[in-house]
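Support request, please re-run this one:
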Amino acid sequence: MILTNPVVLSVIVMTILCLLRLNVILSLIVSAIVGGLAAGMPIGDTMGVLIGGMGGNAETALSYILLGALATAIAKTGAADILALKISKMIKGKRIILLLVISFVACLSGTVIPVHIAFIPILIPPLLLLMNKMKMDRRAAASALAFGLKAPYITIPVGYGLIYHNIIRDQMGLSGMEITTGMVWRSTWVAGLAMLTGLIIALFVYRKPREYKIIESAEPEMAASSDEVVVTGKHYVTLLAGVAALVIQLKWGSMPLGALGGLTIMLASRAVKWSDVEELMVGGIRFMGLIAFVMLVASGYAAVMRETGGVESLVDAAASMMAGSKFIAATVMILLGLVITMGIGTSFGTVPILAAIYVPLCIELGFSPSATILLIAIAAALGDAGSPASDTTLGPTAGLNADGQHDHIWDTCVPTFLCYNIPLVVFGIIGAMFF
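Re-run finished. Output below.
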């Protein structure tokens, strides 16, 4: 029975607990234990695998803490306030324009300026007061951010997209189907179209005004006129620190090193004081600490799921349901990817698992390489939108909940799951049938 499979059972438990508003970290731990017990693993062994597997996301967790500290330092200089003020004057009170600007910046963060979610704690909190005064539904903002974080890497072979496309190419080759990197985007444009459809749906569904408390003390003053904005030397240093963080990250491939470099420049130039270092680190933990710990526990959870052997048995059960039908096969493979990735929370890490399974099945059922690429890309990406343990949902929540008025599950995960995963499933099935 599929419902008694350790992975399926664990993901169901995790989803229910999260929807009941249990803390994401606790939900992941309890779900991992449930999955381990369902697989016959002793509870002590399950916890051992969980803790041992947490190191898989150690660099990511450290990155988020240091980036949070850098964001706090930038906010302390007032540079983020000035940026927010400029944006507020540019959009002239139009919610849709602000949402499109946010989405565009998110798109840049994964392509030409590959900082991923690092921009969110810098850009979004200063804009919250403006959003509140505009009565913008933050579910629309979460959806706009999710689109910008996800759609580019699926469809565009630049930045994180190039990494994702190369992973698909390499893993498909290892599984017996040789392709080139250029073949990936020629298939995944269908997924990009699905994401665009989801964005339009989100902007329409969450277009109505929503009331939020206006907390002046928690956010920058947005009422000042442009004449009152004074750009000082520390703001130029802040810009230099941001550029340095990006350059260091790109040169050495280390996000923590980049964030540390940016902080060093701001401290050395006295844009922020040495005595404020403790405050910066506390601010970094406050901004990004939850994300860091969730990513650590999510890595451990993924290790438990792999240890249960539930993925392999789930695939065997799914294969028996396909009955030689391409339509049924495409549907089952995409939904199978949704289940696996909802728990693991990373499309990049799920591709190797799915490619080893899907490529032989697709060859046997007569799917073309283009259809196989699309099935793998979409199945792996489904968990990024909607999974409580995905940085595509954790990042937006970190920024939008800076004043404590945005719920991770109901205001980020549920809207992005409904708006993006449903179109991705539909477009993926149809696309696989026609490629």
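The chain has one domain: 2-209+226-434. Residues 2-209+226-434 form one domain.
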